[in-house]
Amino acid sequence: MAETAAHHPAPRGPVDRLSDLLWRRQGLLVLLLILPPALWLGVIYLGSLFALLAQSFFSIDEFSGLINYEFTLRTYGELFRAANLDIILRTVLMAASVTIAAAVIGFPVAYYAARYARGRWKALFYLGVMLPLWSSYLVKVYSWKLILAKEGILSWLFETLHLTWLLEAYLSLPVVGGNSLSVSWTGTFLVFLYVWLPFMILPIQAALERVPPSMLEASGDLGARPGQTFRHVLLPLALPGIVAGSIFTFSLTLGDYIIPQIVGTSARMIGQAVYQFQGTAGNIPLAAAFAVVPIVIMGVYLYVARRMGAFDAL
Amino acid sequence: MHSDRAPLGLKIAAAAGLLFMHLPILLIFVYAFTTEDKSYQWPPPGYTLKWFGVTWARPDVWEALSLSLRVAAISTLIALVLGTLCAAAVARTRFFGRETISLLVILPIALPGIITGISLRSAFNLGDIPFSFWTIVLGHATFCVVVVYNNAVARFRRTSGSLVEASMDLGANAFQTFRFVILPNIATALLAGGMLAFALSFDEVIVTTFTAGQQQTLPIWMLEELVRPRQRPVTNVVAMVVVLVTFLPILGAYYLTRGTESVAGQGK
């Protein structure tokens, strides 16, 4: 087809004319390209998002249970009730501890993969992070239900090592303990950490790949101990990656309602509150107001992250 | 500091981290063969292949699997078209609102899934749209676009613009250039993005709980079983099969984008 066009430039059909028009007017081409995705995301996604946000300014009539379609900030006021503040605080604390733990456990994996792994090992490390990242979320949660169950592998391990007393002592602690690991905060924390860990490793690794080894050698040559090199050279350079990873771990923990429902105590997190208010309670305005909380938290978080240069490491 | 020998402590920490990420999934494989059907007892009292047959004969599992496959296929197709268009526009030119568009694409997965889900649900309610196969697809396609977009935009940036100009100079029109020059260049990136989008849709549960009516995708079926276990061994077998099925597209995407800068899934 290209040949015919080259040999006979004279006869030109409507297709060619359209093609010429698009080539000469690049703006039109870009507009045509961008229109379908922009419409889809703009109308379906942003439209729904605004529909939701608008509802947070309505309130619910406590007697009839019907939605009162008048502008009010009362629903937002309800967020500041002690019980609701507890939910928000609890969720943010959980998200923060999961993020910190993920950074601590993920850093060595990312560092080894970025600096020491070569060839076959590099591929192995890469797949070793990608496979858990992409494998089924529910299966991952399920596997921890198996692990943390009272009759499961973890209890068996403690028993085999004659350490059951240790596990029981831990479970009798306030806050982190509980009847068994699968109904404790520790359990919820472990599952969150497990499920989001790969999201932390990849950006850290991307940041570390860009650190020239010569810089670390220079630091050593100038007399820094490995600990000092880590603190004053490596960590500042890896920080944008850590912040980028923390965006994922933090945001994903803030909005999740399935993990705390399957493994954890009866105390709710933000996601569960949203789910219940819109579902069984039928209080859409309060659910919407609750949904704004993670958006606001993430907005502040992203703003800070941007100023720390985290987006270059994404 | 030696440049090519890792300290022992780092090796142990890295190995421990990798083990932590993989052992729980491997555990599922053992549980699929257990003879115990009332609890999650470890070690399993015995091993059997019985539950594979039982699962095979369960129509609800097959229906859920079929629905999930259909939803993932259609959502992937839509995401492929929208993601490629968007990547082509963003990668090649600078235009007003370009930053906004790239933010808009990422937003559905940057915001917690529950927000996407509940927004769509309230929009369906407002518009009196009944839940159906298509409401599920609508949600899935929305967050799958970003995966295709990420892969395609990286490839577009590496594809030299002079190739396109050469093609046009040689007399090809814009459509021929797309068909014979651009498409072969971006094909593997699209395939990789499509596979990941498929895996993402196949596995999605949070948004789906809000956009599905009575229909059950496979993840919804699993969620039911997790909250109210009916037959644990069947859940074990399904979990194992899901792990195996999702590994294939991920490995495929990896081999397709290997050696290029656009490593699939890495949000780089």
From TrEMBL, chain A:
Q: Where in the cell is it found?
A: Cell membrane
Note whether Kinase occurs among the keywords: no
Report membrane topology.
Multi-pass membrane protein
Q: Name one GO biological process term.
A: transmembrane transport
- Cellular component GO terms, alphabetically? plasma membrane
Q: Which CDD domains match?
A: TM_PBP2 (cd06261)
**Pfam families, sorted:** BPD_transp_1 (PF00528)
* Keyword Transport assigned: yes
Chief subcellular location equals membrane
Keyword terms, alphabetized: Cell membrane, Membrane, Transmembrane, Transmembrane helix, Transport
Listed transmembrane segments: 28-54, 87-111, 123-142, 185-208, 229-250, 284-304
User: What family is reported?
Assistant: Belongs to the binding-protein-dependent transport system permease family. CysTW subfamily.
The name of this protein is Putative spermidine/putrescine transport system permease protein
**Species assigned in the record:** Lutimaribacter saemankumensis
Automatic annotation (TrEMBL), chain B:
Annotated InterPro entries = Bact_Polyamine_Transport, MetI-like, MetI-like_sf
The UniProt entry lists membrane topology as:
Multi-pass membrane protein
Which keywords does this Swiss-Prot/TrEMBL entry list? Cell membrane, Membrane, Transmembrane, Transmembrane helix, Transport
Per the record, the major location class is membrane
Q: Chloroplast: is it a keyword of this entry?
A: no
Mark the transmembrane ranges: 12-33, 71-91, 103-123, 129-149, 180-202, 237-256
Q: Which residues form the ABC transmembrane type-1 domain?
A: 65-253
Q: Family assignment?
A: Belongs to the binding-protein-dependent transport system permease family. CysTW subfamily.
What protein does this entry describe?
A: Putative spermidine/putrescine transport system permease protein
